[in-house]
Amino acid sequence: MVYGLRYYFRHIGQTKRAINLPSLRKDSRLPVILNREELKELFQAPKLLKHRVMLALIYSSGLRSAEVSKLEIADVDFERKTIHIKQSKYKKDRIVPLSDYISVGLKKYLAVEKPNKWLFNGRFVDNRYSRAGLTWVMREALKRTNIQKQVSLHSLRHSYATHLLEDGVNIVVIKELLGHATIATTMIYLHVAQLPHTPPHSPLDTLYAKR
C-alpha cells in the first residue's frame, strides 16, 4: 500500500507527499547457521569434484556467490595462501586466507578440469560459472543430505563468520574478511555464535589476581 501511494503521488506531481510516507521495515531475522557436522555432510554430497570444491571454497573463505563467479585462476596464490577478491560489493578489493584443505582440493580440480581463465568455467570455455548455477549446485547438494534447515548458498558465508567468531577471531577482523562496510552488519553474528560466557566481575579482582 505504501509503495502504491508513493507511485500515485509521483504520478500526480506531489513528490513531497511521497517522500513523507513512512518507510517499510524489513523483518529482523537471524541468519541460519549450518553446524560443522552438517557442513561435512554437505561437502561430501555432490557427485562432481568441481561442485564439492565450489561449496567448500565458499565456506572456507566466506565468499559471496558473485565473488565466486568472478574468481580467476590468477586470483588464487597457493604459495602465499591467499585469495584476492577484486572489486566486490562496495567496489572494494580484499584478501582472504586460503585454507590448506581447500588448496589440496583446488589443485586436484585444476589438474582434472583444466579451466581456462575463470576458476570455475560455465557451459562455454570462456564463460564464468553463473550465480544461478552456483545456487543450483547448493540446492542439488542439499537434496542428497539429511539437513532439514532452510538454508541457501549464502548460509555458507553466515556459517563462516559465525564459526570464526566462535573460534575466537576478533569481530573487527571478521568484518574485514567479509568485506562489510560497517561493523553493525557483522555484529548480527554475535546473536547466533555460541560464545563462552564470562560471569560479571570487578576488573579490580583480576588486576590483583593471584598468580
Task: Provide the descriptors you would attach to this structure in a database record.
mainly alpha; globular; 5% strand; 211 residues; 11 helices; 47% helix; three-stranded antiparallel sheet; hpI Integrase, Chain A; 2 domains
What separation lies between the terminal Cα atoms?
66 Å
Strands in their spatial order, largest beta sheet: 1-2-3
Biggest sheet architecture: 3 strands, antiparallel
Spell out the CATH superfamily of the largest domain.
Intergrase catalytic core
The tally of structural domains comes to 2
Q: What is the CATH third-level topology name of the largest domain?
A: hpI Integrase, Chain A
Percentage of residues assigned to helices: 40-55%
Low-pLDDT residue spans: none
CATH architecture heading of the largest domain: Orthogonal Bundle
Please indicate the percent range of residues in DSSP E strands (runs of 2 or more): under 5%
Structural class: mainly alpha
CATH class of the largest domain: Mainly Alpha
Radius of gyration: 22 Å
How would you describe the shape?
globular
Give the rounded overall mean pLDDT: 90
How many helices does DSSP assign?
11
Summarize the helix and strand pattern as letters. Answer: HHHHHEEEHHHHHH
Strands, total number: 3
Brief account:
The chain is built from 11 helices and 3 strands, in the order H-H-H-H-H-E-E-E-H-H-H-H-H-H. With 211 residues, the protein is mainly alpha-helical. It folds into 2 domains: 1-26, no CATH class; 36-191, hpI Integrase, Chain A (Orthogonal Bundle).
